[in-house]
Amino acid sequence: MRNPFLAGAAVVMTVAVLAACGSSADGNDPEAAGAQRPAASGPSVPGPSASTPTASVSPAAPTALATEEPAVPGPSDPPATAEGPKTPSDKITPATGTFTKKQKEYLEDRVPKGMDPAAVLQTGQETCDKLRYLVKADRDTAVGAIATQEIPDAPAAVAGLCPQHQDLVDEAAYAYADGTHTGKTLRPGVYRSASPTTHCAWQIEGAGGKELASGTSDTGTSRKVTIPKSARTFTSTGCYAWLAEGAKG
Predict the structure, then answer these.
(1) How would residue 84 be classed by pLDDT, with cut points 50, 70 and 90?
(2) Please, which residues have CB within 8 angstroms of residue 211's CB and are 6 or more apart in sequence?
(3) Which of 15, 39, 137, 170 lies at 20 to 30 Å from 58 by C-alpha?
(4) How far apart are CA 108 and CA 87, in angstroms?
């Protein structure tokens, strides 16, 4: 289930992202300060259509254009780089300028043949921009977005372009996204729900399907559950993600 917080923050994120974007991989990475970055294209202004008479629009009334942040991709969206032959690392060069050392390391084995490497780099930089915004707005949501893969390929982007967010990736590794988790994937401990919906429900079962704990929440506020050592299955719906208490990377 996609996190409603990310969709609701779309317009605000645009302003934050555009203000924060520079020529570097991330604002806190001085090494990437001189790197070239593809120019972002602005929104197109639609002209009058046959179905909408131009006389209905008052010349004195200003026209507001709503600029929206591109929707945060969900788990079903394709990865940033496609499968198939990749451009050799010594052939990865931008149309203008140069790539920094960190950018080259990120692009290695990630640029399909025939694709502009700057486009692949921009995808990684946009991931860093989203994380930078989310961690300021709500840290748990940022970790949850990585754990649920709602922001795909985040670990690679963080490792290569914005390592200051590595703690988010480390914490996400111990989180549970909505779904059913069994066997060795279960880790005993206390977990809190991150950005749950008003239809959050969970169930913990032991050997033989015996119910050990269950609950629901219609408040949209964070709840806590304890997964015991005897747990064999943990199922969650509408809770978005569960983060381990005390796990900060």
Answers:
(1) low
(2) 203, 204, 205
(3) 15
(4) 8
